[in-house]
Amino acid sequence: MFKTLSPDLIRRRLTSLFPTELIEDIARERDVVQRDRKIDITMLVWTLIMGFAVDGEARTIAGFQRAYSAATNQTVARSSFYDRFTPALAALLSDLLEHALEEVAVPHTIAPQFELFRDVLIADATVFRLHRLLDAFPATHPGQSGAKLHVVQNASKQTIEQFQLTDECTHESSQLRTGSWLRGRLLLFDLGFYSFRRFALIDENGGFFLSRLKSNANPLIVGERRKWRGRAISLPERRLRDVLGDLSREIIDVTVEIEFKRRAYVGKQSTDSMEFRVVGVRNEDTDDYHLYVTNLPDEFTPRQVGALYGLRWEVELLFRELKSLYGLEKFQTSDPAIVELLVVAALLTLTVSRALLGVFQELFPEIVFPRERWAKTFRSLAQLILEDLAQSFGHPPPNLSELMFRDARQPEKSRLLLSERVAEAFMRRSSA
């Protein structure tokens, strides 16, 4: 089986995703390339992508500089390297990420019913702490800084559809815009995005939604979507919460009427109502119902609706991969612009990892590649991949002895080692 794997397979996929010409063209458009060409812009981009995956390395510019020097066998002044971390470089990375998100997809069919949707999207947000106090990223607790990454993940293609970076205090619901772009798409979200007006707008734009029903919601039941044999309790014209305790059935599938307020217009806010579907699936452990509100058609059974909502865990796995494997919470910078740059770099790392995963899934469709196991393997090989790319671009293999000498030596002669400080103190005492 492994004879079919070419040694340059990974390099070919990565350079086809981001050809050197593409990186250089965008760099010129964004005015990243300057007269001083000591730093190879293509290798700088790949260092930020692959360097983010290097195991155990704090996300510092010094760490990226070490990864760059190790891959290119090139000595770069620290000030020259630091000067490259500009808004122009951030714009270059953003353009590359936008390009990659259009190119990378790992499509999979969960079930035939999913052909009803153009895409299945999951909206969520995650907070990560910053190790420096930054005014641009206030946290919910005083004396801290926190950033919030808002994501819409495409579960159908295993890519990121949208992302936005804000401070921790910004509510995730404010970053999700409804509109015609949702037509034919299914959107899954948690209670942070819960809004009857949002549900109505998604439905009016031809989209589909699925959310947990809030515990304090008590809508009016206007119809049952399934007939029950025998002397079943009649539900229409009753409030949902008022009848839950009387039910022993395994599932609930009803139509409810929900009232909500429209957006204010010319200082006036009107009240409207719509009918949606509420599904309940009894939880055997707690002996109560997991309730969901949706506009999915009846071809999705209540148990399928409950299972479908479990797909929302995909975005939690994405956040865990970004944080635990790619160090999203290890930023060591006091510059808000660099925080934003590094977030884009982390998303590029994730996207490149998924692009390579797509290659292997296509080559070996019968083999299972668990995503977290894949990510750990990718991270462990990141520096080797970076060095392989550098050599393909004409950089010589690393001079390991030179790297050891350059990085391990005392940077300033004025700095004394502990033993030297002790010896100096005794010498002064003796002189006195």
UniProtKB/TrEMBL annotation:
A GO MF term: transposase activity
An annotated GO BP: DNA transposition
Domain (Transposase IS4-like) ranges: 117-350
SUPFAM superfamilies per the UniProt record, alphabetical: Ribonuclease H-like
Entry keyword set: DNA recombination, DNA-binding, Transposition
DNA-binding found in the keyword field: yes
Keyword Lipid metabolism listed: no
Domain of life: Archaea
Pfam families per the UniProt record, alphabetical: DDE_Tnp_1
Protein family (similarity comment): Belongs to the transposase 11 family.
This protein's name: IS4 family transposase ISH8A
Organism: Halarchaeum rubridurum
